[in-house]
Structures are given as structure tokens and as C-alpha cells.
Design brief:
- With about 325 residues, this protein is of the alpha+beta class.
- The protein is about 35% helix and about 25% strand.
- It has a domain at about 90-280: Immunoglobulin-like.
- The protein has helices at about 1-30, 35-45, 75-85, 95-100, 130-135, 155-165, 280-320; strands at about 100-110, 115-125, 140-145, 150-155, 170-175, 190-195, 210-220, 230-235, 240-245, 255-260, 275-280.
- Strand 1 and strand 2 (about 115-125) form a beta hairpin.
Length: about 325
Amino acid sequence: MGTMQGIMARDYCKYVTLWIIFICTVFFMPGTSSSGELEEHILDLHAGDSNMGLAHCPTNWIMQSYFEDPKALDDSHFQDFKKRKVYPCLCKETVSRTLKLELSGLGRRLIGEGSHRQLSSSIKIKLNKKSRVNLLSYSCKVIVIEILPRGIFADQFELQHLFERGAFGDIAVFGDTDLELPTVRSNNTVVEIHMDVDPTSLSGDEDVLEINLHIPLHVRYPPLDESGYVTAVFGEPDILVGFSFSIGGLRPDQSCMSILRDRDSAEPRHSPVTWAVPSGIQMHASIVSVVTFLSAAFSAVVIILATIFYSGNMSSKSSKQS
């Protein structure tokens, strides 16, 4: 009888122990219900067609696919490109509210003189405390797409030096990079800059993240103009934020983008930055052409007369000697 009671007591203890382990597993271990909700949330980042898949979204450089086929970079082509490549990759509205970032300031100016200058941009991004906490779960970067006016080039050697000094997270130049190319065959130059966002860099009640960019530029001398100058106008850039998240390597990285500023739809915040590039004056060019022609004709006549005179002298000397 005592042995039977001992066996029942041991079985009871085993059952109690198993129930305690089960309850702890369900309620206290991460990865049961919360993990499922997290995966569902992450897989729902993408605002595009669920059938298209994330593979259609740019994985690194947005502008790289635009210049795979040579084409002019005009507003209509670029807007169509964004509709196909960028807009389907935008974050869902629920995610945008969770990771709310706003463009609170954009300042731009041209620094320097002569044919080598710098385009300076100050970008201020506002995020509240809740956004700062939510961003800790994501990999976040600011993407700036700067389309330069025709005839204005990014100095790639200076950009490389700035990148090596840590001025940019990553940078690439697309489009027209050949300074010697004739103007009629030139295209726009596009600079795409990626800057990592670290919400932990903000301390206390700070809620504005400021990014300062300096793009070194040089210019190709433009065609003739009556005023002697050609004005290059810099439009405001496209500014986006890219978010990505991976779940412990169990699934591929999920990503989406949010637009802080669209150059094609947003009203300019300030008057545009301009660069008055010196060019030749048509009237002066005509005068120079006439003077050059007359000088060349006069020189040719002098050479012909000198040749005739020299030949005559040589003939007279030969006749005297004979």
C-alpha cells in the first residue's frame, strides 16, 4: 500500500512539473505568439502588389536600372521610372505611421567660385520618441537622388576622397560622366547618396536628425549665348528613406521605402539654386572669325609675294653669273 502511494506521488509530481514547464513555455518564452505577430507585421511591409514580390524593388542603387538603356533624363521619363520602380516599393500606411519621419528643413547653396564649386545641402528629418524606439528594430538609411543640370558634373575624384573620409555612407554617380563629350550628346549626371540613420545618436529630447551633404562639381563650358552667360538651375532632390528588417535569418530581408520629398510633386521650399556659367557671345565670335579670316588671308598673300620675290631674285642672280 505504501509503495502504491509513493508511485502515485511521484507521478503527480511529474505531471505538475510538466504543466509548469508547459505554462512557462507558452507565456514567458519569446517566439510563440509574439514572434508570429512580428513575422506577419514584417512580411506586410510592402505596399505594392503582393504578387510582384520584393525582387522587383531596387536592392541597392535606385538609379542604376534607369541608365541600363541609354536615354535622356527628362521629367516625363523619370516620373514614369519612379512609378514603375519606386512607388510599388513604398511602405504600407500602417508601417509609415509606425516609423513616422518628416522632412522639417531643406537648405541649399552653391559654395566657391570659378568652374569648380560645391553644392551644399542641409537636410533636417524630424522623428518623435515613439519613432526613435520603433526604428531600433529596423535598418534605416536616407537616400538622396540629386539630378544635376546638363553640363554640370560631379567631381568623382573629390567624391571618392569624401567617401574615404566618411562623409557619405555610400555614393554612386550615374549618367553623363564624360567631360569631353560634345554638348549635343550630353546627358544629365545623377548622384545617389545613401546615409545610415542611427536613432541612438539622438540624445535626450532631441527630435531632429540633421544631414549635411557637399557635392563637388565642375562645369563644361556651354555653347554661345548673347548674354555671355548660361544659367544652370538646380532643382531640389528626391529624398527617400529605406527600411529593411530580417527575422533571425529565417526569412530573407524585407524592405520598403518612404518618400520624404518628391521633386516632381512637391512645391519648392526655397528659390532654386542657380549657377551663371560664362559662355562666348555670338557677336564677339563673329568678329573673331572675321579678324581670323582676314589675318589668315593677309598672311597667305605675304607668303605668296615673298615666294615670288625670292624666286625673282634667284633667277636674276643666276642670269648674271652665267
